[in-house]
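Need tokens for this chain, all 125 residues.
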Amino acid sequence: MNSRSNKNLIESLRCAFAGIIVLWQSQRNIRIHIATALLILGLCWWLKPQTLEFLFLVTMLLLVLMTEAFNSVLETLTDILSPEYSQKAKQAKDMAAAAVLMTVAGAVAAYFIILGPRLYARLTS
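Here are the structure tokens for all 125 residues:
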């Protein structure tokens, strides 16, 4: 058994936070998604959605961030496994990017459906 699989909880958390730092430092899109998430959380604070609506919005935020993280992993692994140009590697990267786009589209729809009416009411009152 690999000694790396015998990590304790603290070591596992340290590795997870190291991954977050690598994402932040190396992936422009994750920084954009985090900035957007902070904006949405600020709107939630101001517009006060119901608890289940807020939970759903936070879940959507996390899904976008997780999908972007998996996209970054797939792109990195593809670059390692296929250093030369490959149409199949390009297709794999494009499909991973499509997954991010679909997740973002779902999140944007949820934000507009849940926060849109509240924002309109606040701005027109």
